[in-house]
User: Fold this.
Amino acid sequence: MKKSLYMMILLALSCLLPQAKAQYPQWFADAKLGIMVHYGLYSIPSYSGREQYAEWFYKGLVSNDTQRILFQQRVYGNDFGYFDYMPLFKAELFGAEQWMRLFKRAGARYFVFTTKHHDGFCLYPSKYTHYNVMNTPAKRDMVGELCQAAHREGLRVGLYYSLTEWTNPLFRWTVDQDTAMLENYVTRHMLPQFKEIVDHYRPELIFADGDWDFTARQLHASEMTCYHKAVVGNDAIANNRMGKDWDQGYLTPEYSSGINETQRPWAECRSIARSFGLNRASPLEDYQSADQLIGHFAQLVSMGGGLMLNVSPSADGSIPLLQQERLLELGEWLSVNGEAIYGARSAGIPMQTRQETRHRVDSVILFDWVRNGPWPHATEDHFQITWDGTLQVEGNGDYLFLLDADDSATLTVVGRGATHKADTVMQATATKDAPLRRAVRLKAGCYQVCVRYSECDIDASCSLLCAVNGQPAAPMKSATGWQAEITWQAPEVCFTANNGYLYAIALQPLGNSIVVPCPADEGHTDIAVASLLGCDKPLPCSRRGDRLVVDLSSLSPRDIVSQHAWVFRIGGRH
Assistant:
């Protein structure tokens, strides 16, 4: 009775916190690297389109996704339903100890495991649903085993929890619209189940999800965060996905180039490939190389954030070898260069970049990259594409151009009249919120068509369709193919600061010197020497105005211990 009263007092006091400026535990900002794991019934089919999330397999089945439906019918039969995967969920190679040892070797400071995804299936013995792991052949509390193994390895515990479900009869997310049903679901199922995982496993970190159609008030966000804080204490931290208007918690950009935020903790979340749940249909080029992964991680830290890197176990509970290899390569790099990462902050120095350009020929402009880039090494955000093509008009006709873009694209059509002088027939722009629908009458002749696409952040897509003389619209083709030029800014050097040192992280092969913006009026006039992490050899520095030049000419191949990215410590004593 005294314990219950104590908890009620703590909860009441904690609920006062949202009225003041949110306070976040320092451990999360210092940790920088966490490993997220998406594992569930969707891990059995492990299938989706290239730009889809495999963990959304159920949603594909009920929303007429032909590709997923035909795959399930072909492999499992016409009468097979999603929850028929439960008798197949054996997890015969699942091992909590092996997972945690791997994550620790990767250099992670915490892990995040899916207690329940949007399908409603729980990886622990929840008393609020029959759809849980205890009713499968696996029959084990995976969440509990992982939490215990994490504690033994010194990793902090994080748990992913989907607030809404596609399958719950109290309220089916994306199907039911009655807000009274939602409130019934929240109070009778969601809140009790959320408190269940907090009480049983006491996770320091909560990663909530499935919130974006509802407000924080509808989802009782304050009650959840207050309860978490009251049970776990000052180390408790939850994310900002507790309602579309919820402006608290650590930020979670997803498959992005990072965000410029240094006052609030954040960690970009992404998988090693393009899906959080394992997608066996993913080609090899969809997996980040060690160079890409480590370079991206360093960029995030230099911007003031961290990385929540997802791995995708197979149906049997084993982590695929390619993913293990990437984790170990990351851990090996951190073992040498961790002082520039753990506990580091943004140095306030802009990242050095260079423009990259690639060319290719596309048959049509019909792309939906979702949150990925258009080229293997291109950035996911802030890239541009120009397509140049030719439209041959055989006879006079009415042409309807349909251009869709996220974020924006401009369509220009230029023709030549009897005087052979270029004449702009049309020029118009499409944006995410205002697609272009423009009808023009074209005379017989040859027209040059240009589409200039610009991506800002988050989703990326562009499509150009055309309808002639009232016929159905179809992807527009060019007589010469669409000549595409893709440009983006490739990072070369990024900067962090830690314990009085400045760190320059070179993401490209080294030359004879590295140049660091270092204004003399900021107290850096006395810097005379630097060093490459992993090498004891001093590297002389010279000042050229507001720049510091580190001489690398004395380095030999045997001095360079790290691969993928090279870190220089500048300042202090060497």
